Amino acid sequence: MANTFDKEESPMQDISFKYLDEAVWNRLRISYTGLEGTRTDDGSYTNLGLMLSDECPWKTEVLTSKGNALVLDGPIIKQYYDALEILKCFGGSMPDKKYMVEKYPAKILREALVNAFVHRDYSDGAPVTISAGRDTVEISSPGGIWVPETCTHEDLYNIRNSEVARFFRAMEGFGFRGNGITTIKQYYKLTPQVPTVSFDDSSFTMRLPAISAISNKYEVRTEKVASIIRTFRGASVRTIADNTLFSTQYVRRLLKRMEADGIVFSTGCGKKNIYYLYDYGDCSGSKQTTLFDRWRMDNSLNATPYYEPISCVPDIRE
Prior knowledge:
Elements: H1 18-28, H2 47-51, E1 60-64, E2 69-72, H3 76-88, E3 93-95, E4 100-102, H4 106-119, E5 128-132, E6 136-142, H5 162-172, H6 180-187, E7 196-199, E8 203-209, H7 218-232, H8 237-244, H9 248-260, E9 264-267, E10 274-277, H10 291-297, E11 308-309
Parallel strand pairs: 1-5
Antiparallel strand pairs: 1-2, 3-4, 5-6, 6-8, 7-8, 7-11, 9-10
Helix pairs in contact: 3-4, 4-6, 7-8
């Protein structure tokens, strides 16, 4: 398999690793020179080495709802840690009847940020962009969905930047076995909110709504299902189950109760049975589509960006 960008020889060889050496030592108790992937077979620095160096040319921009813009520079691991610290300011907890609800759990932010750094297209000089607000955090990275020339079962070989992934796995313990997006969905399972993604041929954006409540109550689960039906403009039992992580049997019971309460109605039967909201307007002409369907039909990815439930993204991005 041809080298990915992070394995290629860096155009800059006069680089230093002051921050990286301290960060790696504090975390792993080894020198950065013990890290794999920072040098080629002939001893020159790779692009991964450049990404982790003090001279790293790639940036991260943080935009706030108040119009402030912060530019994070230095090694990508420093940008990652700095971004986490900034996003903590938009988190915090809110009292619920039974729980203290964390608006943006740290694990969700970590998963989304690592996804951006691992899957971004580093041949594009555009920065990772974070739009942070009290109600929503959006994390966008250059490069759309990446498909390897040859898919293999070898560890990390189906990731755009496999050496970057190895580095974050060593530093932060990420597995990169298709569980990133699943982890994010799991955190939203008992909330009314639905995380979404959008992509085109030049960027990939993950949208994380602030969590407002955590509950097993019928009202919260109803609102969750309604959000998915509204996002899809009509959804099947399978679609709802995939996006809520509820079982299909439970979704059917829940929808039956929602029908009795006058919240939803359905058309068709069997696999073609699609549920709509009564308060959504005339949905008779709506057609259910998913990100995966459009990605499969249009490999050029020239369509304009749009949001869909997060579970519809092909696993290659996880």
